[in-house]
Amino acid sequence: MLNDTHRHVGKRNGLVKLLIEKGIRNKAVLKAIGKVPRHLFLDSSFEDFAYQDKAFPIAAGQTISQPYTVAYQSELLEVRPGQRVLEVGTGSGYQAAVLCEMGIKVFSIERQKELFDHTRPILTKLGYRLEMKFGDGYKGLPERAPFDGIVVTAGAPFIPKALVEQLKPGGRLVIPVGENVQKMKLLTKNDRGQVFQEEKGDFRFVPLLEKRN
Ligand code: SAH
Question: Which CATH superfamily is domain 6-203 in?
Answer without folding.
Answer: Vaccinia Virus protein VP39 (3.40.50.150)
